[in-house]
Amino acid sequence: MIPCAEDIGNYALRSVGIGERLLPRSDFTLCNQVTLIGSGMIWNLYFAAMALFFGFFLANALAVAKASRSPWARKPAEGFVFLFRGSPLFIQFFLAYQALVMLPRAGIEVMGFTVATSWLTKAWAGALLVLILNTSAYSAQIFHGALMSVPKGDLEAADAYGLTGWAKFRRVTWPTMMRLAWPSYTNEAIFLFQATALVFFSGFPAFQQRGDALYYASYFADKTFNPFVAYPIAAGYFILATLVLIGLFGVANRRLNRHLPGATRGLKYRPQLLR
Amino acid sequence: MFAQCADPKALEGLSWLMCYLTSGKHLLFYASFGTVLLLLAVTAPLALLFGFGGAMASRSRIAPLRWFGKIYTAMVRGVPDIIFFLFVPIALDQGIEFLRSRALCDNPVSPWQGNEFNVCAAAKMPLSTSPEWVHEGYGFTLAVVAFSVVFGAFAANVLYGAMNAVPRAQLETAEAYGMSQRQVNRRVLIPQMWTYALPGLSNLWMILIKATPLLFLLGIQDIVYWARDLGGAKTQAFSYPHPDWRLYYFLAILVFYLLMTWVSERVLARLTRRLSAGQATMGGEALRQAGPA
């Protein structure tokens, strides 16, 4: 018999609305807390994975735009990066929620079709949107810095091989940029992952008490007046997930650097505090 | 505030707006910007001090002190800072009340009873009879401590790295001149480390600025609190009825933060230039080649 089997059955998927509807109200066991806070991690993982995935593409586009010679591409990219890097994520969440709530509830009429808008005020979409924009601004700054430090020799070699335009970018510039940016980008991914803990503390309400790990941790801390159990559990989950994240990024790092001598060394986890 | 604002319902247009923006609660809202600045002004030096202590402890020759420093600096890695912001104030508050209950209560029992935390009235912190400002001040102090502990750990990381980055040769030269370990620390290591620490500390300052709205989560009446309070829709029962204006209040806060980070970036860039002068680094070399300005 697995310990906590009953709790796992009841609460393991509680954060996505499957299982027992009522949260435990008294006699909080350690099993309760570990299971429910772990269940909340589903949201943290969802936000982090989706934001990193979509943010990656947007960040690449922004970095290239920021390095562009045309002010029509450069200025908007610079403004975007400044806006999202210069203001607190917490305020961005509040602002986004207030702005999205203002959209007409019935939806917007576009050429005879009705575009529904209410889903945007839900955390899974609205908060994700903010996280995508936020991480792409930070990542764009990192990628732009890497793009600026692509060795001149590499580009000249590409020219010598007759590579131009898109082929040159895809086969020489971009891989080098990724290679240079990767350690910092790993750091940004860790910060983004930690930032997902803010989602349900800012603007976006937790629908039917479906929240993230910290939402449940603070629920327990409030109910039991004992912060010494719930918060360390949440912290443990975050450390575990961060280690997995570093492992995954380390695999990518090895692949990016596989052509270099002495590239067998892994990615070292040294937070550079880039935010 | 002004005489013509006595009857807000009779006002219209610009004069209504002027009276609205100078109402008592708005003045508190403006004052709360001061709260944020105060938090920054108090936290930054304190965190630097904590960080300095942590970095020195990590370099210590005494093992328990070194372990303490290492654990402190490793603490913030991998754990979201917001968990610490929620945890430290409660833990500190309960710790203080626990110790006070041991000293002040007649027959102290463990305050953690079931799902309650209770101490006798004499041990409450602050006392329930104390005035409102004591409660607010206490809450703010706890917040400052929480911020200082977390950012102190960040700063310890940065300063530890910076101390290791000071060229070994400079320290050895100082030793060759016959300086003691303490003299080397005071006269060479600490003055020299700043140029290496500055990029990290600049980043940290930016993070600190952007972490200040979290004060709201600690129950402080900061700008986020007032923006939500003032911006919420007001019915005719209020002196100044208006629909939901929270969006505009948050926009104002956003502009405030953008200004703060923009100004900080300018100042820090200037400071970096100043500190690089005469250093054996790339920045210093660039300044040297450019010649005297």
Can you lay out the helices and strands and say which pair or pack?
The complex is a heterodimer of chains A (275) and B (293).
Chain A: H1 5-11, H2 30-66, H3 71-86, H4 89-101, E1 108-110, E2 113-115, H5 123-148, H6 152-160, H7 165-195, H8 213-224, H9 227-256
Helix pairs in contact in A: 2-3, 2-5, 2-7, 2-8, 2-9, 3-5, 4-5, 5-7, 7-9, 8-9
Chain B: H1 13-21, H2 24-58, H3 63-75, H4 81-104, E1 112-113, E2 116-117, H5 132-165, H6 168-176, H7 181-211, H8 223-231, H9 246-276, H10 282-290
Antiparallel strand pairs in B: 1-2
Helix pairs in contact in B: 2-3, 2-5, 2-8, 3-5, 4-5, 5-7, 6-7, 7-9, 8-9
Task: Write a brief caption for the model.
The complex is a heterodimer of chains A (275) and B (293). Chain A has nine helices and two strands.
What key phrases describe this protein's structure?
heterodimer; A: 275 residues; mainly alpha; MetI-like fold; two-stranded antiparallel sheet; B: 293 residues; 10 helices; 1% strand
Report on this structure.
The complex is a heterodimer of chains A (about 280) and B (about 290). Chain A is built from nine helices and two strands. Chain A is mostly helical. Chain A has a single domain, classed as MetI-like (MetI-like fold, Orthogonal Bundle). In chain A, α2 packs antiparallel against α3, α7 packs antiparallel against α9 and α8 packs antiparallel against α9. The radius of gyration of chain A is 22 Å and the shape is globular. The relative contact order of chain A is 0.14. The mean pLDDT of chain A is about 85. Chain B has one domain: MetI-like (MetI-like fold). In chain B, a hairpin with a 2-residue loop joins β1 and β2. Chain B is about 70% helix and about 0% strand. Chain B contains ten helices and two strands; from the N terminus they run ααααββαααααα. In chain B, strands 1-2 form a two-stranded antiparallel ribbon. Chain B is an all-alpha fold. Chains A and B meet through α3, α4, α7, α8 and α9 of A and α4, β2, α5, α7 and α9 of B.
